[in-house]
Amino acid sequence: MRNVEHYKKGYYMPPVVDMSWAYKDCPDKAPVWCSVDLRDGNQALIIPMSLDEKIEFYKTLVAMGFKEIEVGFPAASETEYEFLRYLVEHDMIPDDVTVQVLTQAREHIIRKTFEALQGVKNAIVHVYNSTSFAQRQQVFRMSKEEIKQIAVDGAKLLQRLTDEAGADYRFEYSPESFTGTEPEYALEVCNAVLDVWKPTADRKAIINLPSTVQMSMPHVFAAQIAYMSQNLKYRDNVVLSVHPHNDRGTGVADAEMALLAGADRVEGTLFGNGERTGNVDIVTVAMNMFALGVDPQLDFSNMPKLVDTYERVTRMHVHPRQPYAGQLVFAAFSGSHQDAIAKGMHFREEGNEQYWTCPYLYIDPHDVGRTYDSDVIRINSQSGKGGVGFIMEQNYGIDMPKKMREDFSYFVKSVSDHKHQELKPAEIYDVFEQNYLNVGWPLKVENFFVQKFGGQWIGKILVKADEEEVILEGRGNGQLNAISNAICEAYGIEIDNLVYSEHDLDRGSDSRGIAYFGLTDKQGRTTWGAGVDTDTMTASIFAFITAINRMEGMAQRVRFRHLTSDPAAVSEFKAIAGQH
Ligand SMILES: CC(=O)SCCNC(=O)CCNC(=O)[C@H](O)C(C)(C)COP(=O)(O)OP(=O)(O)OC[C@H]1O[C@@H](n2cnc3c(N)ncnc32)[C@H](O)[C@@H]1OP(=O)(O)O
Ligand SMILES: CC(C)C(=O)C(=O)O
Ligand SMILES: [Mg+2]
């Protein structure tokens, strides 16, 4: 690719550290989560949130279980300032929630921040300055010592103003642009800040290491975190935090590996909103833990509502493929996936598995408030019989014989293919109803009755065929056999093989049953039909006639034979049949 020579590695490998953490497979408990939606997320929006929108988002975060929330940058704007004041004046900060505010390490900005904090019981004051080589060289044009001094002066001012306020605020320091900073120098600056604060077990300090711009592969970032974790002073009294961004698309991997490498806390946002490519998506990191059986201590049980709130207040969109939350992340359109999912669901319903092991579905969609009906099996031209059968069974209680399911699914696929559209369950049912159920053309059953004479049944059926009412008569060793013989003999239909099954559709005294017939002619061609009625025999005859009607050339055959009956016989038939 052109211009590759413009680039080189912008990060620094840390000195050799203990890498035994790399053998851990996953974190064994949730980290401290800090939402930075209302600050880092907000500062990256085209239109930052209004006061009302921030309030709604804040309430959502509290309800989800966040205990640390960066509520803004109070010195940035009136809305930011007013928002914190609103929370204080309306007593909206629960005792177990700590609000965090961000400030540059500049005196007037820090003072303004403290003004905004008046009356807050639990607060984290988060101060930052850039420490990277590029920022020292190009933005600040300062030496390492001078940059360290900005951090130390900021730390001292935080301490002084907190003492003056008689408050008990906790402190956080970020060497901003950490990923572009020499690790040894970042360590020196952080330790200098910690020497000012002298954190104790009762009042720990937070050292937050941001990948302000992501520059390396995740294991390199994690090794940088391990280096800091293993060398920071006061380590037992330091909460080591990470703040991954997503420039390389690996924010989640950075957070997860950093947790293995020693981080205790993660700053991020819902769905990864934030500067440029965003902050790390806390939903994904937390749900990844959940899916491994570790309680993330955050509630995502109504993900659709969360998505709705987020999209409304930020004016951003959650991508349909966004892990755990996107519209399509549980959807299976393709046949083989649908088949395995439908079988996996049955396996689970049979009580076989304590844990979630359903193929193709990483987690149970119900756990994030999604449904199997509309979210999982979705039908288009890529779908198969397993999926179509699943929709018909789940939504309408229709459990077709296996071969009929296959026949119907090819029919449905071709409808979807020609329309070039997904088919929703109701549309699939319409296809079934119009083409496979109680089909009354070219033959329509009007009435029938059967009687036993000796060892044989005589069946008579009144059908409407080509606008004529015709009585057909046949004999057989069973009731259905007598009726089917009547129809086949009348129209010269030879059946080589038939498949029949039936089941209840509803429960209750006037419950309906559904019958299915598959008829194979001498040429080996099979047609399928279904019939529904409160009477099983009637349902079966409807199913049989439907399968007959769906045979190739049946309309011509009926027209060609043009059978007729004496109208008086038809009236007499109707009278007799009415008594049965
Ligand atoms: C990675 C991050 O997300 S960091 C957070 C970024 N977020 C924001 O900036 C949003 C809110 N910010 C703001 O509203 C404004 O930037 C304000 C109100 C804080 C400050 O505005 P301004 O006074 O206009 O200053 P501006 O932000 O442009 O900063 C420029 C000056 O501050 C210095 N500076 C920037 N960051 C820092 C810092 N963290 N500590 C100390 N000095 C800093 C710059 O070197 C520059 O100095 P100079 O005037 O001597 O050239
Ligand atoms: C203020 C800091 C933590 C930040 O947002 C970043 O570096 O990305
Ligand atoms: Mg950031």
Automatic annotation (TrEMBL):
Amino acids binding Mg(2+): D40, H243, H245, N279
Chain spans, region Regulatory domain: 439-580
Known catalytic reactions: 3-methyl-2-oxobutanoate + acetyl-CoA + H2O = (2S)-2-isopropylmalate + CoA + H(+)
GO cellular component terms given for this protein: cytoplasm
Gene assigned in the entry: leuA
One GO term of the biological process aspect: L-leucine biosynthetic process
Organism: Megasphaera stantonii
PANTHER family: 2-ISOPROPYLMALATE SYNTHASE, PTHR46911
Biological function: Catalyzes the condensation of the acetyl group of acetyl-CoA with 3-methyl-2-oxobutanoate (2-ketoisovalerate) to form 3-carboxy-3-hydroxy-4-methylpentanoate (2-isopropylmalate).
Major location (coarse): cytoplasm
Protein name, as recorded: 2-isopropylmalate synthase
Residues covered by the Pyruvate carboxyltransferase domain: 31-304
GO MF assignments: 2-isopropylmalate synthase activity; acetyl-CoA C-acetyltransferase activity; magnesium ion binding
Pathway: Amino-acid biosynthesis; L-leucine biosynthesis; L-leucine from 3-methyl-2-oxobutanoate: step 1/4
Broadest EC class assigned to this enzyme: transferase
Reported cofactor(s): Mg(2+)
Intracellular or extracellular location(s): Cytoplasm
Family annotation (CDD domains): DRE_TIM_LeuA
Record text on subunit structure and interactions: Homodimer.
